[in-house]
Amino acid sequence: MSRRDNVEARCPTCHMHATLCICDLVPCLEARTRLSLLVHYREARKPTNTGLLAARCLPGSEVGIVGDRARPLALPLVRPGELGVLLSPDDDAVPLAQYAGSDQPLVLVVPDGSWRQAGKMRRRVPGLAELPCVTLPPTRTTYRLRAEPRSGGLATLEAIAHALGIVEGVRGAAIEAAMLGVFRVMVDRTLWLRGTLRDGEVTGGIPAAALAHDPRGT
After folding, report:
1. Hey, which of 1, 45, 104, 182 would disulfide with 83, CB 3.0 to 4.6 Å?
2. Rounded to whole angstroms, how far apart are CA atoms 208 and 176?
3. Of the candidates 111, 84, 184, the residue with the CA atom closest to the CA atom of residue 143
4. Residue segments in the chain with a per-residue pLDDT below the cut of 50
5. Do 136 and 96 meet the contact criterion of CB atoms below 8 Å apart?
6. How far is CA 177 from CA 17, 32, 163, 183, in A?
7. Among 164, 192, 195, 196, which residue's Cα sits nearest to residue 20?
């Protein structure tokens, strides 16, 4: 299979190869916390992006593209009556757990991009500098699709899932587990497509369509 055929065979929504599409597995999760995802325009084009997958799991999420002049960012990020927090490991950040149980509806603002791209958003996106910064407890990533340049770094979906596990009370654990479940399938199917994971190691198994028409060209 040629590189062009591989691109044309991708699902336009999840960007996975059509035979490995995960769209039917994406959960619809009700959360009190609203997600406001700020995606760097270069990150939005990558098939290994996980922030957009997280937003699909959470109805009511708002997605803004940062840095694309043709798609200006809609503001404000936080609506009247909401309490916004920025998930970013800045020096002034406090543990997210401090906001668990807030009387106001919480808005989790999450930059999505490389460390360098995400780090610049707080300075460049209007309104972000005024939001309190929050961090997560140390957590080990299971994301294996890109090299992680920073110790303790997480994929965007992992960070969002862990954050909701903290602030969503009794529902938090179930929401976190559901998001991480589809995340693991996405990661494993991608690794299988790359030839670095065996059939029996893929979470949930290999779809019948992929077994019948092997997209790896083997």
Report:
1. 104
2. 28
3. 184
4. 1-5
5. yes
6. 24, 16, 12, 10
7. 192
Residue 1: inside a domain, yes or no?
no
Residue 4 is predicted with a pLDDT of 42
């404000």: which residue's tokens? Answer: 76
| pLDDT at site 39 | 93
149: CATH: 3.40.1280
Cα–Cα dist 205/182, whole Å: 13
Please, what is the angle between helix 172-194 and helix 156-167, to 10°?
170
Residue 218 lies in a domain: no
> Which residues touch 12 (CB under 8 Å, ≥6 apart)?
none
Residue 6: its pLDDT value, please? 52
Q: List beta partners, residue 69.
A: none
- pTM equals 0.92
Amino acid at site 56: R
Does residue 74 lie in a domain region?
A: yes
The number of folded domains in the chain is: 1
pLDDT recorded at residue 53: 97
pLDDT, residue 150, reads 65
Task: List the domain range (segments joined by +) for residue 53.
Answer: 30-193
